[in-house]
Amino acid sequence: MAAEVLVLVEHAGGEPDELSLQALALARAYADGFGGAVSALLIGRGAAGAAGVLGVHGAALALVAEHEALEDDTRFAPDAWAASLCELIARRSPAAVVAAGSDRGNEVLARAAARLDQPMAANCLAAAAVGEGARVTRLRWGGSLLEEAELDGVPALLTVAPHAVATQRLDAAAAAVESFTPALREEDLRVAVRERVAAPGGGVSLADADVVVSGGRGVGSAEGFAAIEELAALLGGAVGCSRAVTMAGWRPHSDQVGQTGTKIAPELYIPCGISGATQHMAGCKGAKHLLAVNPDPEAPILASADYAVIGDLHEVVPAINAAIRKAREAR
Ligand SMILES: Cc1cc2nc3c(=O)[nH]c(=O)nc-3n(C[C@H](O)[C@H](O)[C@H](O)COP(=O)(O)OP(=O)(O)OC[C@H]3O[C@@H](n4cnc5c(N)ncnc54)[C@H](O)[C@@H]3O)c2cc1C
Q1: Residue 219: CA count within 13 A, CB half-sphere
Q2: Does residue 258 have its Cβ closer than 6 Å to ligand 1?
Q3: The pTM is what?
Q4: How far apart are CA 55 and CA 24, in angstroms?
Q5: 110-138, pLDDT tens digit by residue?
Q6: Is 314 close to ligand 1, i.e. is its CB under 6 Å away?
Q7: DSSP letter, residue 256
């Protein structure tokens, strides 16, 4: 049995990404199952800084890929990342490779799986080594069912469902840091991000916001989002929406919450005029508190709500906005 689980850790500005810390927690449990170690692969500028804090999250070793083509994180080249990962897999023969269930984590692992001609399991909640493979529990159908599956082959390639596994802090020493230079070929760099266009409005991103105020078909029009935007701004949050809204062209797809949109885990989620379809709930089940605004007391969203206002959002949301403004003026 190989003695290591390798985790692809994403980071920004020297800070490991939250979803990668969740992947480390799953990897730690996987490695504990056979008394193995956890190592991390980090790529891009600031990687060495991020590596320093991984010890308490269960990684004994941080392997930092250094290559001029990997330095600029804004020019993400998924095949170059997959090549770096596969080079480490060839050298270290890990029992499993784990990544966050982020866009990058899923893409890099899928490309690594294709290179290795191995299966890959996405959306895992738990995993354990079994013989020459792994047994995994995965979220399927937008989170409406759990699948128990067996994955053949070594290493087991897994990504972790976002916000489904709690991060851990251990009383552990700092991870040792080793750097290596992957042997990249020209074709590894053919697919790369060439340009980034900031979303209009800037501000806090939907995925990271502590408060998200979303509108659904019940908002009725693009203009109807004015009060929702105001509430999000008053609470320092972001605006989201359902697919009914993006399909109607009222908001861009980047605002969509759900199975085929952004997965969010805010402290407070306020869906207004949203029925609570399974595919929508798949994107917001990580919310700590949910306040629904809907006139229909039978709407499915109420089954997931901690609080609800049964009423017309066109009256309720402006009233909340006015109350917040008034309370702030009185301070
Ligand atoms: C493969 C697939 C993927 C999908 N992915 C996603 C996804 O990522 N995200 C997503 O959201 N959906 C997704 N969907 C669509 C999903 O199934 C639903 O159709 C969609 O979420 C419904 O959006 P809604 O709740 O805004 O609209 P509806 O289901 O029409 O609900 C509208 C709600 O507004 C309420 N309402 C009406 N008037 C008012 C008012 N004045 N004030 C307050 N409330 C009011 C109604 O009572 C109702 O509950 C997907 C579907 C498929 C098949």
Answers
A1: 30
A2: yes
A3: 0.73
A4: 10
A5: 999 999 999 999 999 999 999 889 999 99
A6: yes
A7: B
